[in-house]
Specification:
The protein has 6 helices and 7 strands. With about 180 residues, the protein is of the alpha/beta class.
Length: about 180
């Protein structure tokens, strides 16, 4: 299984992206991150399946529902317990060995469809491509946005579905507090 992880380095004001297998690393700038979570996300939403299907809802309703389902990882139900997810944010920074040899991403190219999406990162003389199914690409976008938020990059014009809170749905599944225990608090 392939994984992609993001780590923010304040001293560089860049995000380190690590793609496995192959241990490919590159720096992602604020400007290119903005392009991914805004421009590419909007184009991705335009390819959401269900256009013209009776009862499927509007494009906005379909992309929001698809995003919630991806965040619930419904497509990963057969994954082994304890196995790391395919997209990760590292709160503890990995060692930054040979930082001068880490490539700087200088451009992007995206291919978006109803079944999958890919982003190609143009770095020096290499192009690294991350291809995901639609749920995986939703998780990629959300993780990238969360990392940018943690870096306090203040991304602009983010699609509503990418910023939607999933906390309400999570909390609604929790059992109610026992009234007796709540009185003791």
């Amino acid at each position: 299984m392939s994984t992609t992880s993001f780590s923010y380095f304040q001293g560089e004001d860049r995000m380190l992206v690590t793609m496995e297998p192959g241990h490919h690393q590159f720096w992602l700038t604020r400007r290119l991150t903005q392009s991914i979570v805004c421009d590419i996300a909007v184009l991705f939403a335009g390819k959401v399946p269900g256009e013209g299907v009776p009862g499927a809802g509007s494009r906005n309703e379909r992309i929001a529902m698809e995003h919630r389902m991806a965040m619930d990882e419904e497509d990963l139900e057969d994954q082994s317990p304890g196995q790391p997810g395919p997209i990760q944010f590292r709160d503890n920074l990995p060692p930054l060995e040979g930082k001068d040899s880490i490539m700087l991403c200088q451009g992007l190219d995206a291919t978006l469809g109803v079944d999958s999406a890919s982003v190609s990162f143009v770095c020096d003389d290499k192009t690294l491509t991350l291809k995901q199914n639609r749920p995986g690409f939703h998780r990629f976008l959300r993780t990238l946005l969360l990392c940018a938020d943690k870096a306090e990059w203040q991304m602009q014009e983010i699609p509503f579905w990418l910023r939607q809170s999933l906390l309400g749905e999570l909390l609604s599944g929790l059992p109610p507090l026992d009234e007796h225990e709540a009185d003791e608090c």
